[in-house]
Write a structure and sequence with these properties.
- The chain folds into 3 domains: 79 residues, no CATH class; 123 residues, Aspartate Aminotransferase, domain 1; 250 residues, Type I PLP-dependent aspartate aminotransferase-like (Major domain) (Aspartate Aminotransferase, domain 2, 3-Layer(aba) Sandwich), CATH 3.40.640.10.
- The chain has 19 helices and 17 strands.
- The longest helix has 21 residues.
- The two termini are 41 Å apart.
- Strand 16 and strand 17 form a beta hairpin.
- It has 474 residues and is of the alpha/beta class.
- Helix 4 packs across helix 5.
- Converts seryl-tRNA(Sec) to selenocysteinyl-tRNA(Sec) required for selenoprotein biosynthesis.
- Its EC number is 2.9.1.1.
- Its cofactor is pyridoxal 5'-phosphate.
Length: 474
């Protein structure tokens, strides 16, 4: 083994080889960076030899030099390649949390790009040349759409909840129904966020039933807030009872020190119920009913960037804006640019320009027509897959509207040399990655979540994959 290690060329000799010059040239590396990566490659091979794990050519053969630089190229790819990749979501889940939830529309992307590629008036008043506040940019649109007196934006809705509880209820009591102590993604719980904020949780009612009297019995001098949490990611059916917003608003109005705060979670500005899709409460309606504060997400049913939006009465929102956490939780210029353009689409009644709204409200017939067109194009290019159209269901996703199934049209895709699970993996490893779903051992494509531009890319990926399969089997 020691003899093998002694035969590994030193780095200065490797630098003088034609292979080294070819490596740094083809990989577009400086002499210093190329040398650093080759050192890593040699060290890794040395380690594998010592551990008796090296299965490559012996150092005393001519092929060993090639192995060093092949390994170096792999190290360079791993070290310097981007980890965030575009994927085509053909799963049919619109607000897919693992795939980034709501995607941006073209005009939103253009506005973000314009703001990101230049200086902006993020905290500067162009009218008088004085320092401004980043809170003002999206605030006017939020207030116009919701009827709130004031608003602010933080980096997500969990942050919004944390800020509200910390700033307004630290060391004081907050009353919450037991049926609303929800857990959101990643094991984050309302009760845990409340504990971190310093607020004291007062649970009332039971899991399935909470009455107005339960709240009334627990209001006392130490009570700072009644908090209602929308059950956005689950549904309780059967023998249930909860207190509506209007009744809780009336109750808190009888107690001057008590704030009524509603965490809406998903935060719908668009009335999906008019399209027969769910019964999601509208932010405007909750504020009109007299809520002091509401908070909701930007990247769920609103269809914008990740953000937590807080809206409500000006005197309360002003307290939040001045709190030290407001700076810790603030958003950047690109988030604000994306959010304000998304909100502008709502104000101009251009919801069809918001991809999430468009995808959720698409009819089964629209998805079917797109599916038929794609299959026709694939057959025209003689792609050797088998296609079958079938009815199915799409999901809204993102922890929203759990009771809603969207009627859709699915493409069942198969190949005589690959199982559905093998195809699922192969498509995931393509460039761009294609995310599909498997149901009853069928590989399914749901074009509800695939745009027309992406459909062309999807066709190209399937065409190239079929050629790769043919080469492997010939």
């Amino acid at each position: 083994m020691k003899a093998l290690l002694r035969q590994i060329p030193p780095i200065h000799e490797l630098q003088n080889t034609a292979e080294f010059v070819r490596f740094i040239t083809t990989q577009d590396l400086s002499l210093e960076k190329g040398t650093e990566i080759v050192k890593e490659s040699v060290a890794l091979i040395r380690k594998r030899i010592l551990e008796d794990l090296w299965d490559g050519p012996s150092p005393d053969t001519g092929r060993f030099l090639h192995a060093i630089f092949t390994q170096a190229a792999l190290i360079k790819k791993e070290k310097l390649s981007l980890s965030l990749h575009k994927v085509i979501n053909a799963s049919g889940t619109v607000l897919h949390t693992n795939l980034g939830r709501a995607r941006m529309g073209q005009e939103t992307i253009e506005h973000m790009s314009k703001v990101a590629s230049s200086y902006s008036n993020l905290e500067y008043q162009l009218e008088n040349g004085k320092r401004g506040s980043r809170h003002t940019h999206a605030e006017k649109f939020i207030c116009e759409l919701t009827g709130a007196e004031a608003a602010m934006v933080v980096n997500n809705n969990a942050a919004a909840v944390f800020l509200v509880l910390t700033a307004l209820a630290k060391n004081k009591e907050v009353i919450v129904s037991r049926g609303e102590l929800v857990e959101i993604g990643g094991s984050f719980r309302v009760s845990s966020i409340m504990e971190e904020s310093g607020a004291k949780l007062v649970e009332v009612g039971t899991t399935n039933k909470t009455h107005l009297g339960d709240y009334q019995e627990h209001i006392r001098e130490e009570t700072a807030m009644i908090m209602k949490v929308h059950q956005s990611n689950f549904v309780i059916k059967g023998f249930t009872s909860s207190v509506v917003t209007e009744d809780l608003v009336n109750l808190t109005s009888e107690h001057e020190q008590v704030i009524y705060y509603e965490d809406l979670g998903s935060g719908a500005l668009y009335d999906f119920s008019k399209r027969g899709i769910g019964q999601e409460p509208l932010v405007r309606e909750v504020i009109q009913q007299g809520s002091d504060l509401v908070s909701f997400s930007g990247d769920k049913l609103l269809g914008g960037p990740q953000a937590g939006i807080i809206a409500g009465k000006k005197n309360i929102v002003d307290i939040l804006k001045k709190h030290q956490l407001a700076r810790v939780l603030r958003v950047d210029k690109m988030t604000l640019a994306a959010l304000e353009m998304t909100l502008l689409h709502y104000l101009q009644e251009e919801e069809d320009k918001i991809p999430a709204i468009y995808a959720i409200t698409r009819s089964k017939d629209e998805v079917m027509q797109q599916s038929i067109e794609m299959i026709a194009q694939l057959k025209q290019r003689n792609v050797p897959f088998t296609f079958e159209l079938m009815e199915g269901k799409s999901q809204v996703g993102g922890g929203t509207m759990p009771e809603v199934d969207l009627d859709t049209c699915l493409i069942s895709l198969s190949h005589d040399r690959y199982s559905s699970h093998e195809l699922h993996k192969e498509l995931r490893l393509q460039e761009p990655s294609i995310i599909t779903r498997i149901q009853q051992d069928r590989l399914l494509l749901d074009l509800r979540t695939v745009s027309r531009d992406e459909m062309d890319e999807l066709i190209e990926v399937l065409y190239n994959l079929s050629n790769d399969i043919d080469r492997e089997n010939n």
